[in-house]
Amino acid sequence: MSTAWIPGVVSVTFRDKSPEDVIRLAKANGLEAVEWSENAHIQPDDPEGAARIRRLTEEAGLKIAAYGSYYRVGEYGDQAEETFRRSLVSACALGADVIRVWAGVKASADADPEDRLRVARDAHMIASMAAEKGVRIAFEWHKNTLTDTNESAMQLLKDANHPNLYCLWQPTVALTPAQRVEGVQLLGDRLVNYHVYSWPDGKRGPLNAAEWKLYLDAAQCGGSHYALMEFVRDNTEEQFASDAKTLNDLIRNGGYYG
After folding, report:
1. 24: exposed, middle or buried (C-beta count within 10 Å: 0-12, 13-18, 19+)?
2. Which of 35, 140, 189, 241 suits 230 as a labelling partner, its CA being 20 to 30 A distant?
3. Do 32 and 7 meet the contact criterion of CB atoms below 8 Å apart?
């Protein structure tokens, strides 16, 4: 199944910069989309602020890839619906059709059956809420959550049992390259976007094109998706420019663009 990728950036990469600066850097480096991050650039339940950033993004000719919330699935008890609603309000005003969420607060090895059931039930609930607005839910593929291994992530999707649940994948440091490729393949059409970075030996390094070719080749989700830069060495604009060139060269010259 052919999968195409559009290069972009996660705004939290430069959490201390203004939205205008994030847009400037994206444009200057040939990127085409932004995942706007909650708390860093858009607050929950702030439709006016989100609409302003949507306008700035679209006027610059960029696409909105997602709304990066920090909603921790299963952690809000009786306040879960209202807490998620606040993120959903901003996501809708932003014009995002994907909301990133976190799969709880425990590593899969530390989660008991009750923990897993609580996360799965909450995930089903917020997936239904988002579906009513035409928005997809994507779990962050991340350490110390229930998506920290391939097996746990796939079990969570099965347990939550909702067609509006997806994953936003990134290369978890604890997994080998072969395990990472396997995870991408297991996700199939549940893969929505990539967060793109290279952390050799658990430290931020220059973007590795050979590594990322493996992940782009492994994708089996079909259609067009976003490959979004996140985390650059030393948080510098210079490293960001270098990594953006690597990503653009890989996508455009490798036949992945679309």
Report:
1. middle
2. 189
3. yes
195 contacts 230 by C-beta, under 8 angstroms: yes
**Residue pair 95/54 in contact by the 8 Å Cβ criterion:** yes
State both tokens at 33. 């989309």
Residue among 126, 225, 239, 244 nearest 184 (CA):
225
pLDDT (0 to 100) of residue 158: 98
3-state helix, strand, coil in the chain (%, to 5): 50, 20, 30
Low-confidence ranges of the chain (pLDDT < 70): 1
Which amino acid is located at 54 in the chain? R
Q: How many CB atoms lie within 10 A of CB 15?
A: 13
Q: For 3-253, CATH number? A: 3.20.20.150
Supply the pLDDT for residue 1: 60
From 145, 160, 223, 159, select the one nearest 191 (Cα to Cα).
223
